[in-house]
Every structure is written in C-alpha cells, then in structure tokens.
Design a protein that fits this description.
The structure is a single chain. The strands form 3 sheets. Strands 1-2-7-4 form a 4-stranded antiparallel beta sheet, sandwiched between helices. A two-stranded parallel ribbon has the order 3-8. The radius of gyration is 23 Å and the shape is elongated. It is of the alpha+beta class. Helix 15 runs parallel beside helix 17 and helix 17 runs antiparallel to helix 18.
Length: about 375
C-alpha cells in the first residue's frame, strides 16, 4: 500500500466536502455489539423494530460483510448559523431540527461517498461498500474508533472541531489501511446535554431511552404521542436539538465549515403552525420535497403540529385545529381533540357532545373521554 494513500484519501475527502475523515480497523469497536444487544433487551428502541431485526449485522462490520478489513469514517458538518433554540419563545411557529431544515443529508452524503469510493478504487483497488444511516451500521462507535471524536453523554458523536454537528457516513473496504488513533472521551463532569433534555430521555450518561426522546416520538413513533410527553414537546414538530445545542464543544464549531448544501430553506426555519395544518397530502409532498421530513408523511406531521398547537396557549389557533376533528386519520383526529381540550374547554365540551357517540376508533374516543384540561391539573409544563 502506498505510504501517501491516507493523506491523499483525506485530501480528496476534504475536497468533496467532508469535514472529518479517519480510518479504523473493522474490529476496532468490539464492545458496540454487546452494548447494542443490552439496549435492545431493555426495549429502549421502542417501535424501531428494524434495529432488532438486523442486530447481528449491526453488531460488527464483519457480520454485515465478512470481507471488510478497514472502515473509513467520514463526517460532514451542518453547524447552524443561528441558535437552534431561538423559537422556544414563539409558540405559533413549529421547531424543526436543524439537520432537517435543508436538503436530505442521506442523498448528498451517499453521492459524495460514492465519489470518494471511486477515487479509492482507482488509487488502490479493492472492493468496498458505502453506508449512510439507513444500513445496519453503527456509525458513531466506528467514527470514534477512527478518531473523528467520541460518543458524548447524549450518545451522539462529539468533535473537538465541529461540536455535536456532524453527519456521519462510512466506507467499508477490503483494503488493509493504516488506522488512526481512536477518539478519547472529553465530556468530563459536564452533563449539560442530559440536563437539557425536556423528556428525561437519558437514564444515565451515555445511554438513551429512545421511547422518551422527542426525536423518536415526532419522527419514528407512528401512533398517538404518549400523554406524559405531550406538554413537554412544546412547539417541537420534527426532532429536537436541545441536547446537541447544549454541548459546550459547539463553541469550536463554525457554521462557515458547514456544507452549503445543507443550508436551511427559508420556509422551514420558522414555519407557522396554522400554515402547516392547512396542508393536504399533495401540498405536504410539495412543501417537503427533497427534505427528510417527507418520509414521515402528512399524518405524523399534522399530529406533531396539533400537539404544538395545544401547547401554544393561543386561542387564535383553535380555528386551525378544528377542521382536523374530521380528519380521516385517527392519529390526527386524536391530536386535534387534545389541542382543543387544552385551548377551549367550552368548545371541547360542545364538540364532544356532538361527536363522541359516532366515533368508532377507541384511541380517538379516549381523547374525547379525557378530563377537560386546566392549568391546575397539568403536572408538566412545556419548556
């Protein structure tokens, strides 16, 4: 193997827009599989059955592809130019996680990975495979093993240069490449990320219970948002940046280093809840074309928006919620009922009298049968 291959590889990765690149042996994260199995056994993955179904392949690169010898871990910065938490005091607007305000990172990173892969084959040969998020690959422990950073107490990768704002991808190759030194944990006694979590999704440092995570609840979870978490969602309608934004290492991250392809779309930086609730399925697909948000579908997005409406405290948004009492989707109807219950008790009682007897869905009936909301009964306040 040419001694200058790794520097040339990293230079090419940088040319393609990757802010970080490192190499690890395929067996460099031996504890990752054991930790994954323990996490799954505790049920912390919630409805993400796909993680359980391919756990063996996910546990180790060689389980997925026995011929792999080295892993090239890559990171692309999406450090935001604005404060990700700035909309917390604007309840009529929906908060979309920073990573989803621009183009779908899966598509862009996979294209760049394939370009780098072609370069590597031309320079050194070998066979390879490229992965971005959707394959059974544990990108974060592999990125740590390759020296890109370390898994923080929020379980995401933290970089000394890029904070908590890195998209990750990987290239598996049959080449025996010289590995980089593994990343070393530098969180120390800091627990800012855990303290920032609105739903207490971190039972202990370096451990996430996805069932309590707002990103999981608003993106992966298909049914009604569990009652205990609804008020805590505030106006977060897609994902949550709180634990990432709290990381002190972000002070070294520069938005100038972020890939320009991830620049936020103006209409997604502070979308009005009333506007989003007016979208039918066709309009939803048009607004979110090219966005990762499109994958959750219109029903889940409207569910999230209606929970945010219920948390807004604004009677002006009742009119936006009312049409969804007749929505074909039970998950949308149920969220609309909850929002009405929170905002207008008298109208809630009126609509319940008219609608409860004809409602066939049990989960929706349970929303009508809930006690009328009052601030005195609320045990949890939105942040």
């Amino acid at each position: 193997m040419a001694p200058d291959l790794i520097p040339a590889l990293k230079a090419e990765a940088a040319r393609l827009g990757f802010a970080a690149c490192g190499v690890a042996r395929a067996d460099a994260a031996p504890l990752a599989g054991e930790r994954l199995r323990a996490w799954l056994a505790e049920g912390c993955h919630g409805d993400m059955i796909w993680m359980e179904a391919r756990a063996d392949e996910r546990a180790s690169p060689t389980r997925l592809w026995p011929e792999v010898r080295s892993v090239i871990a890559l990171g692309m910065s999406y450090a935001p130019a604005e404060d990700p938490l700035r909309l917390a005091g604007m309840p009529a607007a929906g908060r979309i996680s920073v990573y989803a305000q621009g183009a779908d990172y899966h598509d862009l990173i996979k294209r760049r990975l394939k370009e780098l892969a072609r370069w590597l084959v031309g320079a050194a040969g070998g066979d390879l495979k490229v992965f971005v998020d959707t394959a059974p690959v544990m990108e974060k422990p592999l990125a740590e093993a390759a020296g890109l950073g370390w898994q923080g107490k929020h379980t995401n990768l933290v970089s000394r240069e890029h904070g908590s704002w890195l998209f990750l991808g990987a290239i598996y190759t049959t080449l025996d490449l010289a590995p980089d030194a593994s990343g070393a944990a530098r969180c120390g006694s800091c627990n800012a990320c855990q303290a920032a979590c609105p739903t207490g999704a971190f039972p202990s440092p370096y451990r996430l219970d996805a069932r309590r995570c707002i990103s999981y609840l608003t993106i992966e979870h298909k049914g009604p948002i569990p009652r205990e978490f609804r008020a805590r969602l505030g106006n977060r309608i897609y994902g949550c940046d709180d634990c990432l934004a709290a990381c002190p290492w972000n002070k070294f991250a520069s938005s100038a280093a972020a890939n320009l392809a991830f620049a936020p779309r103006a209409e997604l930086t502070a979308p009005m809840l009333a506007d989003l609730l007016a979208l039918d399925d066709t309009a939803f697909r048009q607004v979110f074309a090219g966005s990762p948000i499109k994958r959750i579908g219109r029903d889940r997005m409207l569910r999230n928006c209606l929970i945010a409406v219920g948390n807004s405290g604004s009677g002006d948004l009742v009119a936006a919620a009312l049409p969804h009492l007749d929505d074909p989707s039970p998950v949308v109807r149920g969220a609309a009922i909850w929002a009405l219950n929170r905002l207008d008790a008298a109208r809630f009682d009126e609509e319940r009298t008219r609608r409860l007897s004809s409602e066939a869905d049990e989960t929706v009936r349970s929303e009508w049968e809930a006690r009328p909301y009052s601030a005195a009964l609320a045990s949890i306040s939105s942040r």
